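#lab-general

N.A. 3:47 PM
ok so I finally got the sequence cleaned up, no stray characters, all 98 residues accounted for. can someone with queue access submit it? mine expired

B.Y. 3:52 PM
send it over

N.A. 3:53 PM
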Amino acid sequence: MRATQIEKLNETAKSLGYSDVFTFASNHLRFHLMSKMEGYKQEVKLFEKKYKSDYTSFLKKVRKLKKEDFEKEDDIMDWEWAVESINHLEKKLKSLQA
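B.Y. 4:20 PM
back already:
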């Protein structure tokens, strides 16, 4: 990026109350990560409400079943994805705050 472009971006960021374009970008990246995390947290809450259990306890209970329950298996995969995504996004958020 050319120096004049960076200067223009810095001017715009400053006019919005940020110290520079990098602070602006960092703040917006954090906001974006938190927004995505909230979506996954809502998904986890739906599963917890549906099964009246947390992920780990529910997984153990389903693994003990004698027959397969495809709905529960599908929910386990989606639930696991949501939990792992939250953990991944939390790590990304912490790395931006360091």
